[in-house]
Amino acid sequence: MKYLTADFGSTYTKLTAIDAHREEIVGTAAAFTTITTNVMNGFHEALKRLETAIGTFAYDKLLCCSSAAGGLRMVALGLVPELTAKAARTAASSAGAKVIRTFSFEISETEREAIEAIEPDLVLLCGGTDGGNREVIVSNARKLADAKGDFSIIVAGNKSADDEVTTILSASSKNFVITENVMPQFNQLNIEPAREEIKKLFIERIVQAKGLSGAQALAANEIIPTPLAVMNGCELLSKGTGDTEGIGDLMAIDIGGATTDVYSMSHGHPTLTNVQVKGLPEPYAKRSVEGDLGMRYSLRSLVETADLDKLAREIDFPVDEVQAWIDACRRTPHLLAVEGSREQAIEEALARSATRIATERHCGSWESVYTPFGQVFALTGKDLSEVAHVIGIGGVIANSPHPAHILEGVKSEGEKSPHAKPKQPGYLVDKRYIFASMGLLSQKDKELALKLLKREIVSL
Amino acid sequence: MSKGTVVIGVIGADVHAVGNKIIDFALREAGYNVINLGVMVSQEEYIQAAIETDADAILVSSLYGHGEIDCQGLRDKCNEAGLGDIILLVGGNLVVGKQNFEEVETRFLDMGFDHVSPPGTPIEGVFDYLEEAIAARKK
Ligand code: B12
After folding, report:
1. pLDDT in the model for residue A381
2. Ligand 1, atom 3: closest residue by C-alpha
3. Atom of ligand 1 nearest to the CA of B89
4. Which of A126, A103, A109, A90 is nearest to A279 (CA)?
């Protein structure tokens, strides 16, 4: 059996050729994504490059994922920011969507306009536990019914409001579906049903509307969002298959031009004694996306958050020099730093900051209280302090001569730090960007995908 | 039908966990829908839970003697969050040492609590009050 996986990215279409009989990745190749004309043009170009390198590749099955044309753009609505709004965002992110913004409480007219301006593909509407608050989800359903734009709505809130929400949305021209509450009881997370609906709508809306039907016609799978494929790859490597063990708890970092994605595969149970667990539980397989941390399109906000002076001090460079490179990158997003140059050192410092800030947001946090009986901690979110593996995925990290230096941004800043970040992780890198491909392959052959992941994801 | 939704928890940095479990059990047995936040609960957590679950009452416990500081401003925050008519109860060992309860009660009532229990009151002691107050609120 020979598999070809295709990842239709926003810029590149990446192919990976796998020979199951030889248990090998025989080659990878990439070409520009051609979504505006015919997505298959880019695919054929990449295939030509692949075959130039490895000879004719007669594949039996084609498996595809896509984040082309902006990926699956979503907006999430909930009631309380730390509760159903967070549950909604968690559900959408872990389905591989790009959550552009999360709204909470009753939305205002201005916020409705903000949603219209985002032009989302999908809106996830949540709010209230089952039997809990219903006014807010009903009011927000009305606002969405009136909103301009051709987006679908997934309703996953208080079940007692389902009938009323159905009546409101049926009277509009919006396509909608009702599913189980993301938080049926207080602090109980139930994201699977909403994730399933997001996957279905991805196929209906994105694959058909965004020019991927040509690829779908040839594919042996239903096209899934690329981040979901990456997440499936991470989960497989962590948990293993029924027969073969995985490598256990891990985190993965993917720094792109526009976003920084962080994945964690871990229950994140507290590792300290005297800990009270607070807040919404989080899923074993968690993904977070930071839209303000990226190496090109989100460079300005990255530098703002990381602090320019601090960045310059870290590498002992004049502030002006750092600023000059940042300006150049913003003018020319395709700019690449020359190997071994001073610019590359700046790139690494930026990537390390993105890693640090994105993991701080992804990991849980501790708050400590002193009592006469010693310190007591309250933990919100996942305790990832004992995660043993941190993997850098593709791009900036894989191309850097010092990937471990960038990845060290995940590391905990010591006892006093409130962030439950890894204390002593080992670093690995996905040099050939195969996570998405292996996530796809796992749909057909889990054992092989796991074997290849273990071989390809190398320790630094 | 449940008699109403009650959010419970031990406020502040207080870790006395045993009474909280008993209250949880007793209220459920009595027919309430209980949202138990456990120990070390902040004012914000009570309010967030009450909003999502559309709660009728918040029942605050404080056992370690710092209740007065921990409870200040809870009613104001409820008002701010649109929970103006939520019933607020408090009990446990609210202050340090033996103080005149009437004075303590007045201070907590002034803070905006609807009902204040003296030390040693079992939870059953507020069942009648709770039932009436919730019925009155729902009218
Ligand atoms: C066990 C215990 C501890 C354990 C707690 C273990 C745990 N995780 O639960 C530990 C050792 C950690 C501890 C620590 C401290 N404790 Co202590 N502790 C006790 C002790 C001995 C028993 C508490 C208990 O479980 N009681 C049994 C349960 C069932 O009763 P309860 O908690 O009172 O709850 C019932 C009622 O109060 C009522 N109730 C509670 N809330 C509400 C609310 C409403 C509306 C109503 C109607 C009723 C109600 O219903 C509950 C169920 O029946 C008490 C003394 C005592 N005998 O009560 C001291 C006691 C509560 N602790 C006390 C103190 C001071 C402390 C410390 C500050 C340090 C110290 N000097 O001991 C620390 C504080 C730590 C912290 N940050 O919270 C004092 C409080 C003094 C005060 N408020 O005036 C007490 C009273 C001891 C004393 N006499 O000095 N403690």
Report:
1. 95
2. B16
3. 45
4. A90
B23 vs A395 pLDDT, higher one: B23
Best of A80, A273, A368 to mutate (most B CBs within 10 Å, chain B): A80
Whether residues B52 and A133 touch (CB distance < 8 A) is answered with yes
Tell me which chain B residue has its CA closest to the CA of residue A81. B48
Q: In angstroms, what is the span from residue B16 Cα to ligand 1's centroid?
A: 5
Q: How far is the CA of B60 from the centre of ligand 1 (A)?
A: 14
**H/E segment holding residue A19:** strand A12-19
Position A397 in a domain: yes
A379: domain CATH number? 3.30.420
Tell whether B16 lies on the interface with A, counting CB pairs under 8 A: no
Number of domains in chain A: 3
Q: To which H or E segment does residue A302 belong?
A: helix A299-306
Q: Which residues of A touch B (CB under 8 A)?
A: 79-80, 82-84, 127-129, 131-134, 183, 186-187, 276, 278, 369, 371, 376, 378
In a domain, A151, yes or no: yes
Using one digit for the tens of pLDDT, what is the confidence trace for B34-62?
999 999 999 999 999 999 999 999 999 99
pTM: 0.89
Average per-residue pLDDT in chain A?
93
Residues of the domain holding A192: 73-199
Task: Please give the number of the atom of ligand 1 that sits closest to the Cα of B61.
Answer: 41
Query: Nearest residue of A to residue B5 by CA position?
Result: A132
Residues A287 and A406 in one domain: yes
A131-140, A271-280, B108-117, range with the lowest pLDDT = A271-280
Task: State the catalytic residues of B.
Answer: 14, 16
Do residues B100 and B70 lie in contact, with contact meaning Cβ atoms separated by under 8 Å? no
Query: Quick one: pLDDT band at residue A338, thresholds 50, 70, 90?
Result: confident
Domain count, chain B: 1
Same domain, residue pair A55 and A89: no
Which residue, judged by its Cα, is nearest atom 84 of ligand 1?
Answer: B96
Q: DSSP string spanning B17-28? A: -HHHHHHHHHHH
A144 CA → ligand 1 middle, Å: 49
Closest Cα in chain B, distance from residue A282 (Å): 17
The residue of chain B with its CA nearest to that of A131 is B53
Query: Of all atoms in ligand 1, which is nearest to the CA of residue A371?
Result: 77
Which CATH number characterizes residue A188's domain? 3.40.50.2300
HEC per residue, A359-395: HHHHCCEEEEEEECCEEEEEEECCCCCCCCEEEEECH
CB of A127 closer than 8 Å to CB of B48: no
The reply to whether A447 falls in a domain is no
One-letter amino acid of B61: S
Domain of residue B36, residue span: 5-138
Contact A228, A206 (CB under 8 A): no
Verify that A10 and A130 share a domain, yes or no: no
Provide the pLDDT confidence category of residue A275 given band limits of 50, 70 and 90: confident
**pLDDT for A35:** 79
Residue at A438 is within a domain: no
Phi-psi region of A353 (alpha: psi -120 to 50; beta: other; left: phi over 0): alpha
